Every structure is written in C-alpha cells, then in structure tokens.
Amino acid sequence: MQGATTTIDAAEVAKFEAMAAEWWDANGKFKPLHMMNPCRLDYITSQIAAEFGRDLRNAHPFKGLRLLDIGCGGGLLSEPMARLGAEVVGADAAEGNLPVARIHASQSGLTIDYRHTTAENLAGAGEKFDVVLNMEVVEHVADPQAYLSACHDLLNPGGLMLCSTINRNPKSYMVAIFGAERIMRWLPRGTHDWAKFITPDELYSLIEKAGLNPVDRKGFVFNPLTWSWSISDKDLSVNYVTASIREK
Amino acid sequence: MTFDSDILIVGGGLNGPALALALASGGMRVSVVDALERRRLTGADFDGRAYALALASKQMLSALGIWKSCAAQSQPILDIVVSDGRPGEGAAPWTLHFDHTEIEEGPMGYMLEDRFLRRALLQSLDEAENIRQINGRRVVEQAIHPTHASVTLDDGQTLRAALLVGCDGRDSATARRAGISRTGWGYEQTGLVCAIAHEKPHNGVAHQFFMPSGPLGILPLPGNRSSIVWAETSDRAAEIAALSDADFLAALHPRFGDFLGAFGLEGKRFAYPLRLTLANSFVAERLALVGDAAHGMHPLAGQGLNIGLRDVAALAEVLIHAKRRGEDISSPLVLARYQQWRSFDVAAMATATDGINRLFSNDNPILRLGRDLGLGAVNAIAPLRRGLMRQAAGLSDDMPLLMQGQQI
C-alpha cells in the first residue's frame, strides 16, 4: 500500500476516517450524499455514454472502460460504475474507508480494486484511465492545481474527467456551511472550509492550466419542497459539476 | 451474484403481468408466480367484468405494446354525466356534466372487458424475452437475505431474486409475510357488478347516479351493451344478490329508468363488499407492493385498476432508471422513491373517494341540498371541473413516463 502524502491535507483525512463506517447508512451522516447520488449518477452516466458512444439501455454499457474514482469513500460511485461494467479503481486517502468499501462491494457481488492511495501517487506510477471521477474532492485538497495536473496525467488521450465541487459565494456559505452543517446537521461541523470553495470560472481556469479542455458545466440544485436534487443548466450557485476532456 | 431473476412478482392478475412487461422492456429478468392455472386466467367467454381505463392507462398500455391487440374491443368514453338522484325521481336539476371536448386529449377513457385485457397481457407475456411464468403454484414461504429475497412454492422449489414485488391483491399474503400491517374500514356497502345488453345506443356516454344507498355507474361497452356498477348497503345487496336474474333486472330497472330502452343480463353477476384497505408501508426490505396489495379502495370512480397501473408505471420507472444509473435496484433508497412518489397520490385518492362517498351515501335532506348545490357549483366553475376531469382521466401532474405514452 502506498502512503497518502502529497497534496492531501492531513486534518481533512482524519475527519473522514472518523465517519467511514457510516458510509452506507442511507439515513446516517452521509444522507445528503445518498440523496444527491441519483443526480450525480445521472450526470456521470450521461456524460460517459455521450463521450464514449455507449447506450445506457444495454446491460453493461461501460464494459471495456477503465475508471478511477478519486475519494471513493464507501464506494457510493464506484459500485454503480462497476455494476454498469466499468473496470473500477477506487482510491481514497483515508485508510478507514477502504475496509468498509471492500466489505460492501463483496456483499454486492462486485469486483472493485480499492486502494489506499492518492491521485498523485497513481499518476506517478503511470496508471492510465478512460474516465476519472473527481467528485466533491477538489475542495478538500491542499493544492488544487497540482491535484488537477495529476488528474490530467491519469487520463488516456480522449479521456474524460468529471469534477464536482461547491461554489464560493454568500449563498453557498449559507447553504453548505450554515444550512447543511449547523442547521440541518447533515454534515459534521467543519466538514467544509468555505475559503477552499472554488467558483466555476476559477475551476475552468485551473482545469485548463492542468492541460484539460473543459466542455460542460451544470448545477446540482436541491429542492427543499420535494426533498430532491436535480441538474440545472443555469443554477451553479452552490453545488456544480464539470466535464473535461484530455485531447487526443 | 446471479439469481433466477432480477425481480420476482407474486400475483399474475393484471398489475403483475403489466409490471413484468414494463420491467422486461427495461432489460430486467422477471419471474411471475400465480396461484391459478393459466387455463382459468384465459377463459374466453364474457363474464360480465369490465374496466374503465383512464386515458393515461390506455397510453400506458400503448407504450407497453398491449393496446394494439385490444383497441378493437374497447369502447371510448366520450362523456361522463354525474347526477344525484333517488329511485323513481330521476336526476336532480343540478348535475355535473363532463364532456371530453373540454380536455384536449380525446376521449376521457375507454371501457374494456376483463377477458380482452387479460388475453392481451398474457399474450404479450408469452412473447416477451426475459419473463418466466410459473402458474398454478402458491407461495408458501418468503425470506429476505442480505443479498437477495427468496420464495418457496408449494411444490418445494425455491426462487431467488434481488427484489420481491407483491401484486397479490387486497389480502396480499406477500405483505402479510413481510409483516406489513394494514389500515382500513368497511363501508357497509357492496358493489354489485354485471353487464347488460340494451335496446337503445349509449352514444359512448358514461353515467354516474348518486343514490342514497350508494352510487350507480352505467359504463358503455361496445355495441348496445353497458357495464353496471351498483353500490348498495350490504344488507340490501345480499338480498339483491340472492334474487333470480329476472328479479334482479326488475330491481335494477327503476334505478335509471328507460333511457337505454329494454335491457337484459350479459354474463355473470358479481358482488364485492366495499372496504378500504391501505398497507401501512408500500415497501419493506427487498420488497414492494403494487395495486390492491398496497391500497384496496372503494371502486366508486373505477380507479382501482388505474391506480394500480400507475403504481406499475412508477415502480418500473424508478427501478429502470436506478438500473441505468448503476444503482442497486433493491436498495432502501431506491424503494423509498417509489413509496414517496405513490403515497401522496394514493392517500389523496383514498380520502377523496371516501369523502365523496360519505357525502352522497345518506338521505339527510340538508346534505342532499348541499350536495345538489355543491355539484352545481362545481359545474359552474370551468377550471375546477376541468381539473376534476383531468384527475378522473389520470392526467394530473407528476405522471410516470409510461402513463404519458412514452418508453422508459
């Protein structure tokens, strides 16, 4: 097993290790991620299908694609990707997440290569992927630019990176920090550091500097009346996601 | 891990086969277990049972490829006339009149005999890939395991699937075995159901008379025939059910007078005690309930099958979308979406049906005046009337894709 060093902030890792066992409890601490997951998966699956010409009505549409899930946690994204036929490597810097993820994958009858490592270490080892999932990670790393450069190096030419994070503005502070952590107590206090949030334009600029070509961005919007998430073309004010390509 | 099927459906009536077809069209492997032998399911003679299919239900049958084989046997409902009447007095002056030209989608619904719908569904089941049918076998045991659900049949064989769906009616043994309790009450009313052949044409008009003892529906069938749904107090219904056919017709005649001319009985007579029975949950671990297994309702507005098909459409959409996202189709999160989608609709319909029935099923003169005026008021307010019509036609918002006539 490789050490979790480089751009990962040690204090951030410790926070998630404490929560690892709760990953698969739909009504536990990760309830907001579970609630958001269908919306995230809709975006991820449609982007991968479009980029690689796959039909989601088929049984295993992602067969033949090698996919990396960075910050895989308990496997909330790795498992669906494996179920759709992708060859999945799940990487997490928090060692405690990995036993949870491995046990759950075996219960689900899925084969997933979970590793205690970082994007930088995988890139250094010369690993290559068709798809890199980089969801809700960039706001937790110490050096986003170095991290995104590693993501670039991990992609095959023509590969796709999906990167989601949280916008930085007064509304995102109210929703993500004050609302989600303090009022709703969806997330433990201190999960997010607002100063680390990134605006969509800043993220596009970081992605371009990393050598990737950003091609799409959308908002993930929570509707408190229906208690559900949806994808928005226009509202990127809090949670949002981007798709970027490594040129062939 | 591979199981016999992705989804195991208990109950091969109407909702079970419809769900199997919807799921198979989304690439799932499905098993359908039914206690009856196939032969008894497909008796070709008209037995007097027919359904008022809401427009949305017809659109769903079209999307599933079933409608083409029963369209020719259906009767479009072009108009619904609702009136408050007492035997011998005819309709009250303030009546509620629904005309399909007020909504844009064409006829308000279609009448279809049970035998044609059943035959079309079963034919499609035979032709579908990925559907296994097990007829004439009862489920004697069911168990939920960490990785799958299983049922044991009365011949000793065990079937396994990721998810179990109970489509086994208002006394659902699937729900009972899962420990799901029920809420409900009787109405001390019984629905007397039969079909008649009559002298004069019905012109595609459905009639609903609200009588002190309960509502009487006259629903048009192809040709000069109509389906009768006659609700009476249970004591009175037992007396009527015991009458000879000739005496039964003599009792029925004064209820709606002569507008259809002379009439005679077609097929058998049925009696269904009316009661509401709602499952206290529509889902449990690796299990979902559909149709009457989830909610048996007063069949006042002919909504039982329509609501059941809406369950089918919603559950199929939730499961197929989950599968395409790569989600575990049996996870509590996925099943919770189905329950959330359906529970509001079902509760609203149950309350509305119950409320309307309680309002009309008594002979208090004040209430009788109130409901006459109330119905007149509803009739006078076009947007409200159109809303009720769209509701009756099943065209309200938040409609599953299949009910919009679209593939999932």
Quick summary:
The complex is a heterodimer of chains A (248) and B (408). With 248 residues, chain A is α/β, with parallel strands linked by helices. Chain A has helices at residues 10-19, 31-52, 78-83, 97-107, 119-124, 144-154, 170-183, 200-209; strands at 66-70, 87-91, 113-115, 129-135, 155-166, 213-223, 228-232, 239-245.
Architecture blueprint of SSEs:
The complex is a heterodimer of chains A (248) and B (408).
Chain A: H1 10-19, H2 31-52, E1 66-70, H3 78-83, E2 87-91, H4 97-107, E3 113-115, H5 119-124, E4 129-135, H6 144-154, E5 155-166, H7 170-183, H8 200-209, E6 213-223, E7 228-232, E8 239-245
Chain B: E1 5-10, H1 15-25, E2 30-34, H2 38-41, E3 50-54, H3 55-63, E4 75-77, E5 79-86, E6 90-91, E7 96-99, E8 109-113, H4 114-127, E9 131-135, E10 139-144, E11 149-153, E12 158-166, H5 173-177, E13 182-198, E14 205-211, E15 214-221, E16 225-233, H6 234-241, H7 245-256, E17 263-279, E18 283-284, E19 287-289, E20 295-296, H8 304-325, H9 332-360, H10 365-380, H11 382-392
Parallel strand pairs in B: 1-2, 1-12, 2-9, 5-14, 12-19
Antiparallel strand pairs in B: 3-8, 4-8, 5-6, 5-7, 10-11, 11-12, 13-16, 13-17, 14-15, 15-16, 17-20, 18-19
Helix pairs in contact in B: 1-4, 1-8, 8-9
What keyword list fits this structure?
heterodimer, A: 248 residues, alpha/beta, Rossmann fold, eight-stranded mixed sheet, 8 strands, disordered N terminus, B: 408 residues, alpha+beta, FAD/NAD(P)-binding domain
